[in-house]
Amino acid sequence: MSKRKLIAGNWKMNGNLAANEALVKELLxxxxxxxxxxxxxxxxVYVAQLQGLLAGSPIELxxxxxxxxxxxxxxxxxxxxxxxxxxxxxxxxxxSERRQHQAExxxxxxxxxxxxxxxxxxxxxxxxxxxxxxxxGMTEFIVKRxxxxxxxxxxxxxxxxxxxxxxxxxxGTGKTxxxxxxxxxxxxxxxxxxxxxxxxxxxxxLYGGSMNAGNAAELLAQPDIDGGxxxxxxxKAPDFLKIIGAAA
Length: 248
Ligand code: PEP
Prior knowledge:
- By secondary structure, this protein is α/β, with parallel strands linked by helices.
- About 40% of the residues lie in helices and about 15% in strands.
- The chain has 10 helices and 8 strands.
- α3 (about 80-85) links the parallel β3 and β4.
- α5 crosses α7 (about 140-155).
- The two termini are about 15 Å apart.
- It binds phosphoenolpyruvate.
- Phosphoenolpyruvate (PEP) binds near residues 10, 210, 230 and 232.
């Protein structure tokens, strides 16, 4: 099933008021009418700034995390409803950096996806294996376990999520999965989604991990790669614009 691709930029913990404005202005000057959906995910503290900068533009607003809680005594957390107040449309959940550094479990990730969906925000659920897991032949087991937790908690609403396959060994390393390696994991994830929901073919499965202006077209040409989640290259407007162009 051919669907409109989604190109998502994960700015991670980068930027400041001036740099964000310069980056968005450069993106908006070059983006025209994109043939794919585009979202940028700045650090949470900048959502109000980005809401203003992106108003009326073809670029949507995302975030990099959402609380597992609805509201209440959870110091430092930001709820999905609060993010929705600022026009947030997408929330990355379960990025490997959070799984690794903030000890986020599969269950946390599933709950975050549920909170986002309940607020009308589309979760971008990240799954992916480490290099060691790949070398031990565990890739399929790991990504299926991570996605299964989300399916288990979200039931038929799973058709409303976006999945991002991000091999941990490819994130920020300059080592990209080959299009064949990525496609074979995407096909596994698609089959798992099909077993869970009749609407599985609606779900966009993004590839992430050192996607750049040079390798995007070949990755995006794979039948089950419906877009990209881009870190480093999303901070350089010319590179991000080329990736958007490759998703036509
Ligand atoms: C990411 O952070 O989700 C990512 C894919 O990073 P990079 O593109 O820098 O590998």
